[in-house]
Amino acid sequence: MRRALACSVAAVVLATAGWVWAQDAGDDRAAINAAKEHMERGQELYVQGSYLEAAEAFERAYEAQEFGAFLFNAAIAYERHRAWSQAADHYERYLQDEPNDASAADIRQRVDRLRTLALQERAQAGGTGAGDAGAGSTPADGADGGTAVAAGTDGGTGTSTVSAPPITVADLGAPIEEADMKSLVAVRTNPPGATVSLKQGDRVVAHGPGPFAHTLDEGEYRVIVEHPDYRTVEESFRITPGRVYVFFVEMSQGQFLGYLRVVTDVPGASVYVDDRDEGAAGQTPFANVIPTGEHRIWVERPGYRPQEQTIQVGLGEDVTLRLDLTRVDFGRIRVVANIRGAKVIVDDREVGEVPWEGEVSAGPRRVRIEADGMKDYETTIDVQQGQVTPIRVRLRPAVGRGGAWVTAALAALLVGGGAVMGILANGIETDLANERDAGRLASDDPRLLEGQLLAIGADVAFGFAVLLGGLSVYYFLRDPLPDSEGTTLEPRDWAFAPYLGPDGGGAGMRWSF
Fold this sequence. Notes:
Number of helices: 8
Radius of gyration: 47 Å
Mean pLDDT: 77
Shape: rod-shaped
CATH architecture of the largest domain: Alpha Horseshoe
CATH class of the largest domain: Mainly Alpha
Low-confidence stretches: 1-27, 128-164, 497-513
Number of domains: 5
Number of strands: 24
CATH superfamily of the largest domain: Tetratricopeptide repeat domain
Strand content: 25-35%
CATH topology of the largest domain: Serine Threonine Protein Phosphatase 5, Tetratricopeptide repeat
């Protein structure tokens, strides 16, 4: 029985969000969606054995969309809960919605027996019957002294005590099997207002304007959709027990449509259907009508490996594609700085100029930013798989070293000049010494003064060279300006933003700080 109802309440192909044809379809879309959610919840509760809660969920499904199949499911759940009156009420309401059901006579007979059981249990609870059976129990078959209530009595009125033995749960007949479950066919057309006919063989089972819904038994059927402004569309299909079928019909294209949902563990992935060049059909969670047949689906999200699937959408089917996205094994670095055109160097390899964004292997990476006349900025970051790490850099001016170079050059010139004068002074001193030893040196020889002046000049040059050299070192080491600075932001997902321009479409990176 659980298996049977699991089939009866499984809205395998009930289309929900994505009814995009008509401006006024929003309420209808929301109602169908709510009905599906309640019915699926009812199925889950029924399988768990929570029959009362399941029945209440089916009732809420009916409140969202007044389809008789929901009442039928609720009646079954109430019956399993041994809530005989509620089960009878819902079977009767079902017959009000579906008076032409082929099994209407059997359902009415079941209603009579359910009401009899309900009256018997009320009588027992009031002490008018034999035994102390609690609510929900019935006397054993053939028990004496029970109070039998005439079948067909209403709500406890018109009862009569008779000598016939009371009925039991077994008198309800065999449990409802899967083959007895009701299925629902709903037809939505674009444009709305088309005439829908359901035929089984040559017999017209149902006929009416769209939007159209009808409860059917298991079997082979043909749906025919007619509109005065479009050619007739028709298709054969098979109804299996306990299913809810929603057919979408595009009259202008003369085709039936199924329904596609794409769900990813990370929302926001782009979904492409059949032709990637046409652009994304939407983003996950994605839901929309789709022509029946085979389709190729691509699902892509920046930072994750793209996935490709081939699916088959049958007539009236609601196909759900669930995917788990896997991050790529690389990441990205995004660099912006106050100096446009500054060099970006990653692990000692120049990769581009500011502003720059590019792919790098995941893991620790050393990033350096360089620009002429500016102090370098360097940092180490941990690049995450499938994520972008933004870096904001402010380069500061480097200290000018012109003065240091000038003083260093002057010091070098002075050293050179002093060396020359020292060499000349030493040469003169040697010549004078030789002539002094030979006794030929005159006291007024002008070379005596010249040698002294050259020696003094060499000493002065060396002294100034030392001073300028020290000043040059100071200028080279002195740095009163602040260092360049940067901020590494938290890794984040990256995204491409589509755009349209005079030359066509494209995609570019989108980011913000």
